[in-house]
Every structure is written in structure tokens, then in C-alpha cells.
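Now for a specimen:

…
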Amino acid sequence: MSEQEIKVPDLGGADEVEIIEIIVSEGDSVEEEDPILTVESDKASVELPAPAAGKITKITVKVGDKVKEGDVIGMLAASGDAGGSDDAGDDKSEQAEEKTEAPSEAKSEDTKSAPKKKKSGGSRTEVVKVPSLDGFEDVPVIEINVAEGDTVGEEDPLVTVESDKATMEIPSPYAGKIGKILVKEGDKLSEGSDLLEMTIEDDGDDEDESADSGDSAQADSQESKPEKPQGKQESEPQPQGSTYEPPSPGTKVHAGPAVRKLARELGADLTRVKGSGPKGRIVKDDVHAYVKSQLQQAQQGSGVATGSGIPGVKLPDFSQFGEIEREGMSRMMAATATNMQRSWLNVPHVTQFDDADITEMEDFRKAQKAAGEKRGVKMTPLPFLLKACAAALAELPQFNVSLDMERKEVVRKKYIHIGIAVDTPHGLMVPVIRDVDQKGLWELAAESAELAQKARDKQLKPAEMQGACFTITSLGGIGGTAFTPIVNTPEVAILGVSKASMKPVWDGKEFQPRLMLPLSLSYDHRAVNGADAARFTNLLTQLLGDIRTLLL
């Protein structure tokens, strides 16, 4: 036998990685490719293999140490040929070292079953886990979009799940080849659940693979290579001045399994952490900085009030008064209750009431019945409300903002997206119509009807319920004269619409029967003052009272 150094191989672009487990001990015998220790980067956990068969004579590192490519982590006495001389053992040792440095060399048949394929940069097998599901748990799988052996790109859909609120696709965090699928249709998933195994090819030199690997295997591995991050940003992050970034509509959290685990342990919401890694990826330092800033704010009393100091309501034993029955809240009901409570506790609500004369508007709308039948679209009052609100938001932009109380900033939006509250058998849902100011009445009528039907069928995707600047909620089809809607924070206003009714209106000479529509505008008094709220409802009544003004 001859002794050789065990060195850290190519780490797929990562610079320094932390040792989280040492699998072998001094004196252990190992085969080539047997795992020696496990390291963890911000992207994944990887096992470092033995470069040759032999006996471990020395381990020079410990758990917690950080290593990089080329570092010596131990010594190995490589096994020589039976009855061979020391020179033969030296030759074999040198060959083993060459194999460590050039992993693209061919393997013998008995090592092909090793879990990692060897290419110029090597490969690794990752267990893909379920990312954040926006607070939902035990969400059932309704469709598996890939099969074992498929090659997928980063962000390609792997499975589709359905919550009480919407269906959503779980994207692939890597580019690679699908291995074993660990779930089936009907299984219920939560954040962190194992989804499937995936083989990921690391970047490396353009060396040829051995004849045994075959051209098809080479093509597969080239297709599945992920884009290699440039520089050392991921392993040496430079946290930015602020660790909080309000999530944009439709964006996803980019963080590795180690970072997600750390966030769970510390109770940090990754959607509120601003990533400093490549392409906005969140690294461990970002999570630590965010938690530190939150603790400082809490200790200084400068954090946003959440109502956590309000005593809860202690319930009596209702069974002492008569027969009762208990049932669990649906996920959607629980989420709605939490959101409404958070908004009510954080937002100082004020409501402005007014009536709009929609007599002429209704005559015009009803006159469009034949045109609507030709188009296959029913013209309801909602498109008129959408256009009027879009015009009011453009005229009074202080309603088209959000408040960032942590940064003490006002976020002014250059787009006009409006949410429409839809009453469904599963609860209230709010799909969002984008760029309302750029669309005509017929287009708005068709899109609002389509989104409302998708809401009732539970077919809305998360992106279709995000990004609203303002919300319209209507009880006109049910009844009532007025109500106080709760602002859908981080928006700063919401319009409630009640049932229109005929009322006598004085025209200066006599009372005239007019169809009056009650409007209830609730707003965040931190962002909007009372005078502006009155201007907003006045403008709405003018626009709805004479729809020709919408053309101006």
C-alpha cells in the first residue's frame, strides 16, 4: 500500500463549503467513490467521495470546518495489486490521484453503479423538496408533470397541487434529469416534503467522456447543466443595507435547502428577506441579517404594530348551554381570517359614503344586450366600475400607493391593477385584472367573467391573485344599503358597492326618480386624508353619472 492525500474535488462553482458530517473514521476501509464526508453550500448538501479504494489513515478536518477545492481533508492508504511490489502500489496511487483530478476518465463496470456519474465537472443527486406554499399545508397533488428520466430546466413545473384557494405548479429549483419520483397523485404535501430525486450535472472542462459513457449520456448531461454562477457572490455574500424587500407579483423565493432550514429554525419569513446572492438568491447571511434587524426593531419599539399584545378572547364551554358541533376551519377560511385581522389591527380604517346616479349608465348598459349576445359576453355594471376606478386612481395617485413602514417609504405604482372580490362556495377570492386603464369595456367584461368563473372552479393561479393596487367588492346582487369593507393591505383603499335602488332626487324644481348606487370607500388614513377620499368618491359619482366622461 502507498499513502496519498485526499483532496476536495471540484465543487461545481461554490468556493468555500462547510463540513456538516464526517462519515468515516481513521482505520476504516473504503471503496472508490464511497462517501467520506458531507459538506453543505447555500444551494445543497453534497457527499465527497473517496478517490480510490483503501484504508483511511488520517482525517485532518472536523465538523464545522470550511473547505474549498484542492484542500487536503485526510490521508488514504490505497490498496495495491495482490502480491505486487511497492512500486506497483505507487503507480496505482498515482493513477488514483490522476483520477481525482480528472474525473472525466472512464470507470470500470463495477463502479458504474455509484450514485454519481463522472464527467469533467462531475454530477450530484439532489432530493428536491417542496418550497414555501404561501402558508398552506397538506396540499394534495393533482398532477405529476414529469416522468423518471425526463430532462428539465430550472423553473420547469414538476407537479401541480391544489389548495382551497388555487392550483399552483411547483417549479424545479435546478436543471437536470429526473430520477425517482417520491410522490403520487393524491399525496398531501407541505413545505419541506420530499418531492423527487434529480441528477444535476456540474460545469467543468470540455474533456471527452470515456467510450463507456456513450454519446447519448453526454448529450443528456450537457442539456441538464445549470447556469454556473459568476464569481463568489453566493459563497461570500455582501448583505445589502436593507434585508426586507416586499415581494413582487408572481415572484418566487430563491433559496437553497440549507437556507430554508435555517429560516424555519429561526422563524423567518423568506418572502420578506432580500437576497444578496446571484439573481437575488437568499443566502444564510441574509437570513441572519434579517432576524437581527427584526430583533433590534422589536427591542427599540420601532417595529410595525401587529396587535400581538392584545389579549385573546377566552371562550366559554358552549356545550353547557346546549348541543354543539365542532369542525375545523378550511385553509381558505383560516387564511382569510388571519389576513383580515392583520389588516384591521395595522390599518387605521376610515370609510367615506356616497351615492352615484347610474340611471343613464344602466340605460346604456341594457341597450348593449344584443351586442353582448353577438360577442358572447354579458355586459354587467362591473366594467363601468372598473373604468371609473382606474380613471380616479390616475387622477388621484395618492390612492395608488403602498406604505413601507419599515423603510418609512411610500411605494408609488405606475400601473393600475384592480382586484375584484368574488363570492364562491369556498369563500371570498380576489382575482386581479391588470392594466385596467388600457382596456375597453368589452375586454374588461370578458376578462372579469373569465376570472370569476376560474375563482368559482378553484382554477385561479397564485399570480392571478397578486399585484392589485385597489379592490372592488360588491354586494349589489345580495342587498344592503352600505357597509364598511376592510382594506386589503398593502393596498390603501377598497370600494364597497351595495344594491342600487330607485330614489327621489331633487333636480332644483321637482323630485325625479333616479337609480342610485351606494358606494362605500374604506381607506388607510395613514396614506389618504379625508378630503382626498371625498374627492375620490365625488369623481366616481361624476364618471358613473355620465359615462361619456370616461372617454375624455
The radius of gyration is 31 Å.
